[in-house]
DNA sequence: ATGAGCATTGACCGAAACGGTTAACAGAGG
DNA sequence: CCTCTGTTAACCGTTTCGGTCAATGCTCAT
């Protein structure tokens, strides 16, 4: 990557990266044309090749950026330090949405890249992925106090259920392209409240 | 479409359709080559063009088949006649999985097709979609007896939550390509049991 | 054996798209 | 005026695309 790219104004950098995320998230690696990315970024193809020597380099730069930004934003959110499970999920989701605000197509790109099969890039994606696989979830769940929840509940199942619902919820927004972040956040807040209302032990029950 | 296609042996027809679903679900319409579909189906490109006069015709035939099969299988499952909400979801999911067994990439194709923007096909997709939008969900929810559930629960939220979780659950399997249907069905059964255990009023509570 | 009729394909076509290069242009600073 | 930097239109050789067609084999009644 040409270091001149990094000294570009922030918003121009983001425009180029977002263009890349968009095109690569909609097509396979081989069928994502550099010309299309350049057009989406509002620059000429030649200039795009000036910043990134070739397609592979751009693709892997996008992947690295994706990983770096995600890790950074997650750490910064403080979601891992939360002792309350729901508060942790809340901070995590908020971090995810902050990222999606800046790079709307990054989440879809990440999924596609993870399952990309083109030999020109698949090897390096898989290699770099090994380091990132999350072990936070299981650890997180071992910290919670079962007494806070309704008696007899399967906590593992509850966690998986919430995870799947979050994915399905996010997925619904990601699919339709244009996103209303306030609506998204508000909706997830309600989802959290719902979970709390059914999974947590009620105060009067606790008093009994 | 050449009527000779319909008199092909069932499994050959399915092989061709599945090849179409697979390729069109991975790429946009314009970037889904007929040659790739033919290869995936195990026939020559020329023969594919013998059955379907052109790409657009194949694409729309796939779309119509998708809609028809889905409606048929859902009706046949009896999920709409169930009075018990969870039993209805169970039958519905089983129908969805029967379809996925026959046409593994149909679900992904449907989503992609719905959001396809290529003017050559997007118009007809949207037009045909108008008829299919489901009104079953809301009606279904009005039939349930709130007394069956834990007191104070937001039934609409519960329904949306279950819907999102189902989507997220299915999505997890769809993504990784190779699917173990037994595992899939077993997992969903557990999810249903979990929902029943937390959302439904307990017998002893009812006895109080 | 023969030939009519059908399923199937390899080879081909013109057009378009691809990744990548290059020579030239525009504008700011001295 | 010249130079340096950011930027692009135009181009190149190659590949891929949708679609066609003549030719190949296959089946089966004569």
Biggest sheet statistics of chain A: none
The tally of beta strands of chain A, per DSSP, is 0
Helix content of chain A: 55-70%
Global geometry of chain A:
elongated
- What oligomeric state best describes the polypeptide chains here? homodimer
Low-confidence segments of chain A, given as residue ranges, are none
Radius of gyration of chain A: 20 Å
- The chain-level structural class of chain A is mainly alpha
Question: Which band does the percent of strand residues of chain A land in?
Answer: under 5%
Distance separating the two termini of chain A: 65 Å
Description:
The structure is a homodimer. The model of chain A has no long low-confidence stretch (mean pLDDT about 90). The longest helix of chain A is centred in the first third of the chain and has 23 residues, at about 55-75. Chain A has helices spanning about 10-25, 35-40, 45-50, 55-75, 85-100, 105-115, 120-130, 135-145, 155-175, 180-200, 205. The first copy, chain A, is elongated and about 70 Å long. Chain A contains 11 helices and no strands. Chain A is mostly helical. Chain A starts with 9 loop residues before the first helix and ends with a helix. In chain A, about 70% of the residues lie in helices and about 0% in strands. Chains A and B meet through helix 9 and helix 10 of A and helix 9 and helix 10 of B. The first copy, chain A, binds a DNA duplex (30 and 30 nucleotides) through helix 3.
